[in-house]
Amino acid sequence: MASPSTSATTTAATTVATPAAATVASPFYEDDGEIVLKVSHDFMKFPLGFVVDAGGSVTKVVYRSKKDYKAGQLIKPSEHGLLRLRYFKMSDIFQIIDFLKDHCDVISTGKGSGYEQATWHMTGVTAQHFKAKLEEEFEIKTSLCSEMMALQNSLKLMPELQLGFYGMNMESHLFAAKRVRAIAQAVSKFVELGDTTLENYDVSRILDGNGVSEDLEKLVISQSGPPEMEGAIFELMISSDDAKWAEKYLGSLTNELVVPSILTLFGSAAVTLLVSKDYKLKGVDFTSVAGKTLTGLSEELCGEKDFEKFMEMASRGDLNKVTTLVGDLKNEKHTEDDWYSWFPEEYPAFELGKLSSVNVKGKGTYSKEDLAAGILNVQVASIAKTALHNCLIHKVDHAYFAGSLMKYEVARKMISKHFLSDCFMLAMEGGPILKPFFIRQPGFLVAVGVWAANVEVTKNLEKK
């Protein structure tokens, strides 16, 4: 059966602030369509005043605005420096230079400025398309640094910048808890088949000869009867207060990144990284089926080129309209108590199954919004599963997600539902309880690492 499906047609999801998050004021606020990050005044000491993170699908510009600054000085006194984030669509990238000339508070960086020997850092594969023009217009030299190096800088700065995480999505937790309880009840009803039990067909036994490690074998759902549960998962099964359980086992006690951990960065492609105790990054998984794939499917299948509108469509869609559910497979006249009847009717059997006419009940009836939700759900299911498996492989219990997609609540909700549903299933067989977290305002994440590198360039030049 497919991974659990979700319905995106819900009101605003309930979130629960973790203990640490509840005591630290957010460093972000919105202003005129931009996100503003409050930072220390020392962090603003960068004469050029902007960095570009130009990805394959969207470009993030972090800059010092003329709204807030004049010649590097705040117009209105403030306890904080102010960094602004603006997104640019791929079709608008050649407007970036004009935007910066009109709106960025750039201190002189050309001849006689004292910074003419500087090479300023930018990042992103698309930056090469306007790099030369950028250098010409601002009389500067630039180099395109690795996103991974910038990200490593940012992760080290997370405590100082207080980037923090989005609150826990309780709807996702409740969904996964309900799902695993239903599965546990169904599994408990499996019976012997003549002289042979389903235990003889345990998936882990089939894979014995293929080099599967003992640790992973222990985590395979055997379908041989009710598992012996204990600890956190047993508490979940009998809990009458799911919010309290979630706060105890899924909450974070810190606004800092817990290391070692797994971090998935979802951009035009997606990379899964192991973050070591000293914040060094090691790529452990990669897929080119990610953001660029999602935008292509949006345009070709939903007819929507604007990604913001696609995500709005997905948030309104109903996954049950495009997903083949267990109830869709049942024959109402078949009343025998067999294993099909043990699963809830709303349990997903085949993702996007109703797009096909090859069904007992024929092709489903669905809207473009439903299709958008289905496309997004299939896409994020793969990164949720990849993150979870890498947590198991590398024996860490914190999984972090970042990238522009994570700013959308519907994406975070879907990822959480898949991640927690799979996690709870594995926990029934002794697996650990793993924690998913989403870094707030992810458009800043790579860019502030580049900004920090340029602050260091500035300080080094001023020492000479």
Morphology call: elongated
Q: Rounded to an integer, what's the Rg over CA atoms?
A: 25 Å
Order of adjacent strands in the largest pleated sheet: 2-3-8-5-4
Instruction: Describe the oligomeric state of these chains in a short phrase.
Output: single chain
CATH architecture of the largest domain: 2-Layer Sandwich
* Highest CATH level, the class of the largest domain: Alpha Beta
- Biggest sheet, open or closed, and with what strands and sense? 5 strands, antiparallel
- Provide the CATH topology of the largest domain: Nucleotidyltransferase, domain 5
End-to-end separation in angstroms reads 65 Å
Task: Please specify the SSE layout and strand pairing.
Elements: E1 15-16, H1 19-23, E2 28-31, E3 34-39, E4 50-54, E5 58-63, E6 69-70, E7 73-74, E8 81-89, H2 96-103, E9 119-123, H3 131-138, E10 141-145, H4 147-161, E11 168-169, H5 170-187, H6 203-206, H7 214-217, H8 231-238, H9 242-249, E12 261-266, E13 270-275, E14 281-287, H10 291-302, H11 307-316, E15 324-325, H12 326-329, E16 348-350, H13 368-394, E17 398-402, H14 409-427, E18 435-438, H15 443-463
Parallel strand pairs: 9-10, 12-17, 17-18
Antiparallel strand pairs: 1-11, 2-3, 3-8, 4-5, 5-8, 6-7, 12-13, 13-14, 15-16
